[in-house]
Design a protein that fits this description.
With about 325 residues, the chain is α/β, with parallel strands linked by helices. It folds into two domains: about 1-10 and about 260-334, no CATH class; about 15-255, Aldolase class I (TIM Barrel, Alpha-Beta Barrel). Helices cover about 25% and strands about 15% of the residues. The protein has ten helices and twelve strands. It has helices spanning about 30-45, 45-50, 85-90, 120-130, 135-150, 170, 185-195, 210-225, 240-245, 250-255, and strands spanning about 1-5, 15-20, 50-55, 95-100, 130-135, 155, 175, 265, 280-285, 290-295, 320-325, 330-334. The strands form two sheets. It has a six-stranded antiparallel β-sheet with strand order 8-9-10-1-11-12, covered by helices on one side. Strands 2-3-4-5-6-7 form a six-stranded parallel β-sheet. Helix 4 packs across helix 5 (about 135-150) and helix 8 (about 210-225) runs parallel beside helix 10. The longest helix has 13 residues, at about 30-45. It is elongated and about 70 Å long. The two termini are about 20 Å apart. This is Alpha-galactosidase. One of its GO terms (molecular function) is alpha-galactosidase activity. Hydrolyzes a variety of simple alpha-D-galactoside as well as more complex molecules such as oligosaccharides and polysaccharides. It catalyses: Hydrolysis of terminal, non-reducing alpha-D-galactose residues in alpha-D-galactosides, including galactose oligosaccharides, galactomannans and galactolipids.
Length: about 325
């Protein structure tokens, strides 16, 4: 159950989020054809209207070698016009364009990384019109060089959660990975949600591996913990229920709330101990309007009951609530 509670009414805010294109055809998906098709589908499904902005391409977009001057080369078989014309076309749709990079010598797939070429790559990305770059001192160097280009480039750090990145990521980049890969299975969702829970003070759909109920829990947990919403999937395979979920105005409003405080765990009285394969069942947190978001993730088909007086921040005040996945409204409660 995912709901908002508020004294004097229900909140409705504008959403803003990002989208990611990955894993369709593996390396073959890192192409102009896929980037433009994704952008068009992105708009037709209503994701742009919901606030999503970025169309990002993952690893394998370049050739395996730099040119004689040390520049990265877009694979001509995948990018016959190069990167800039594609970025310009996506910008003309009112969207932003992002690329994958690596702070080391090689990317995960063995393509050229940026180590030793940070200045050169930062300038090249800016000249192409790139808006997003996914790549502690090594990250700081690229951060400074991206800033120096004068272009506003969203800098995403990916070190799989090593070196306690959550303690320094906010000073180095705009977002950061805090775990190993999510392969689209329920066990991955549970693992990542439970890893995120203790570090929230720092504040995969359509892959066929999750049930509809698991997808709803997955997306809602990411929203209430204020994680960047990055859709790593083939947009053409999203069904109507999945599109409805990822454009849910209430969940996106919570995710993008200006207070930017993630929901955290709380334990009502007489709560059973959580099993190792279960997500923490109770989450709550404030948003800017005074609304407290309380989340209950039930195991299997079990019914879970919660007295809202046990939710931190509600106390004994009068409030109304809206269940965000169904829009079920309760006008007045204590």
């Amino acid at each position: 159950m995912f709901f908002n509670t508020q004294s004097l009414g229900v909140v409705a805010l504008a959403g803003l989020a990002t989208a990611y294109r990955q894993n369709q055809g593996q390396c073959n998906a890192a192409s102009e054809k896929v980037a433009l098709a994704t952008a068009k589908t992105f708009i037709s499904l209503g994701l742009k209207d919901a606030g999503y902005q970025y169309v990002n391409i993952d690893d394998c977009w370049s050739t395996k070698q730099r040119d004689s001057k040390g520049n990265l080369i877009p694979d001509p078989a995948k990018w016959p016009r190069g990167i800039k014309p594609v970025a310009d076309e996506i910008h003309a749709m009112g969207l932003k364009f992002g690329l994958y990079g690596d702070g080391g010598v090689k990317t995960c797939a063995g393509y050229p990384g940026s180590q030793g070429h940070e200045q050169q790559d930062a300038n090249l990305l800016a000249s192409w019109g790139v808006n997003y770059w996914n790549s502690k001192p090594r990250y700081e160097k690229m951060r400074d060089l991206l800033r120096a280009t004068g272009r506003d480039i969203l800098y995403s750090l990916c070190n799989w959660g090593y070196d306690e990145v959550w303690t320094w990521g906010a000073q180095v980049g705009h977002m950061w990975r805090m775990s190993q890969d999510n392969w689209g299975k329920w066990a991955d969702v549970v693992r990542i949600a439970n890893q995120a829970a203790p570090i929230l003070k720092y504040s995969i759909l359509a892959n066929g591996a999750l049930t509809p109920a698991e997808e709803r829990t997955h997306f809602a947990i990411w929203c209430i913990t204020k994680s960047p919403i990055i859709l790593r999937t083939d947009m053409t395979k999203l069904n109507s229920d999945e599109v409805k979920l990822i454009t849910n105005k209430g969940l996106l409003a919570v995710n993008q709330d200006s207070l930017s405080k993630p929901a955290v765990l709380f334990t009502p009285p007489n709560t059973p101990t959580k099993g190792s394969s279960e997500i923490y069942p109770y989450w709550s947190g404030p948003i800017s309007t005074g609304t407290v978001v309380a989340i209950v993730a039930s195991k299997g088909n079990l019914n879970t009951q919660l007295n809202l007086k046990d939710v931190p921040g509600l106390k004994d005040q009068e409030y109304s609530w809206t269940e965000l996945l169904t829009d079920l409204v309760n006008v007045s409660s204590h």
